[in-house]
Amino acid sequence: MDDEIAVIGVSTARSAVFKGGRINSAQIARVRERLAGVGEGVIKLVVTHHPFDLPPGHEPRAIVGRARLAMQAFAACGADILLAGHLHTSHVGDTTARYAIERFAALVVQAGTATSIRARGEVNSFNVLHIAGSRVRVERYGWDGADFALAGGDTFERTTKGWRRKLAA
Ligand SMILES: [Fe+2]
Fold first, then answer.
1. How many CB atoms lie under 10 A from the CB of residue 78?
2. pTM for this one?
3. 5-41, pLDDT tens digit by residue?
4. pLDDT on residue 98
């Protein structure tokens, strides 16, 4: 944590039996407690392996177990950005459609595959988040055969209803 961001990691990996991963009530309580104490102007990020939302075409069971319970706590403590991997697919969205919590929408930033060969049809990629107050720019860098190059980006703003994509002017 510094003056601008607070980052908390949660291990959602479980035994090989639970392929989708899970967050338990002790972990949820810890995130809520730690992030609730963070000042208003600080952007709060939660990092998990398994995702809280899905790009189109992925099965719902890929979502981390107890996600709804966790999201209520994330809303209560004002989590801003949820970072995840696992799917090997890049995607940026927000929690509005899946969780429908009033006056709350966290950004959901899904990383692709940076270095492994499990690329699932996408080039290797990683995301860079530029955070400036209540505005976040998410940039995606993709492998072009020789190097990672800027391949796209979106800007989001924190509104009274949560995070929203900023439409190009
Ligand atoms: Fe995984």
1. 18
2. 0.94
3. 999 999 999 877 666 799 999 999 999 999 999 998 9
4. 96
Please identify, in words, the CATH class of the domain defined by 5-165. alpha beta
Residues with Cβ within 5 Å of ion ligand 1?
86
User: What's the CA-to-centroid distance between 152 and ligand 1, angstroms?
Assistant: 24
Distance 167 CA to ligand 1 centre (A): 32
Alpha carbon of 121 to ligand 1 centroid (Å): 16
In 49-168 the beta strands, taken as DSSP E runs, fall at 81-84, 91-94, 107-110, 125-132, 135-143, 148-159, 162-165
Q: How far is the CA of 149 from the centre of ligand 1 (A)?
A: 25
Q: Give the domain ranges of the chain.
A: 5-165
The pLDDT assigned to 169 comes to 59
User: Closest Cα to residue 35, out of 3, 66, 1?
Assistant: 1
Distance of CA 156 from the midpoint of ligand 1 (Å): 27
pLDDT in the model for residue 18? 62
